[in-house]
Model the fold of this input.
Amino acid sequence: MPLHLVARATKVCLLIALTASASRLALAESNKTSASNLMPLYVKECAACHIAYPPGMLPAASWQRIMRNLSQHFGADASLDAESVKQISNWLTNHSTTESGGQAVPEDRITRSTWFRREHAEVPSSVWKRATIKSPSNCAACHTRADQGNFDEHFVRIPQ
Ligand code: HEC
Ligand code: HEC
Done:
């Protein structure tokens, strides 16, 4: 290959590698926000029925709508006193994602976000319905360290 073409090919490869690691980094960062830095009140009140979903996985508009409708929370009653609602709502808003311009995602579900669909595109629809998994919202069924806010692909085990 002529030298200038080799140089160009190298540049393209570098660019691809950089882009890939940048999006990795963005995810790793959003995961880190979620790990040990969670507001204790949020963990206390919002991790009884499912994991404490990382705040950086939903936009502000969705968190705020969730916090306004806790008595009708995805078929459950997750009501809290007004002061706790205010504190948790503020904290979630401050740590929310600005991806999609902060606009609400469908049903205010992490599992309906564009990035979630992209990351899970290779999971066949039959897998989500397994008795051991039940729902895409059940992150911990496959992400063995979800309770630590760690969604790294190295700790994914899909149960049979
Ligand atoms: C009484 C039980 C209960 C409590 C307490 C609770 N939730 Fe939930 N939550 C649910 C159920 C049930 C679902 C639906 C799960 C499913 O579809 O499999 C859900 C779903 C969610 C989802 C959407 C997950 C997805 O599909 O992407 C979010 C976000 C969420 N809860 C946030 C919160 C927040 C914030 C709090 C605290 C204010 C909270 N939850 C407290 C029961 C609860
Ligand atoms: C049926 C099992 C399953 C469930 C349930 C599940 N995931 Fe995943 N998740 C996967 C698989 C498989 C991958 C792709 C891993 C890979 O790239 O090798 C993945 C990838 C991811 C990634 C990207 C990780 C990386 O290192 O690039 C994130 C973030 C993530 N999931 C978050 C979640 C969240 C949040 C929930 C719950 C709301 C969830 N997942 C529920 C199986 C699951």
Q: What stands out?
A: The two ends are 49 Å apart (CA to CA).
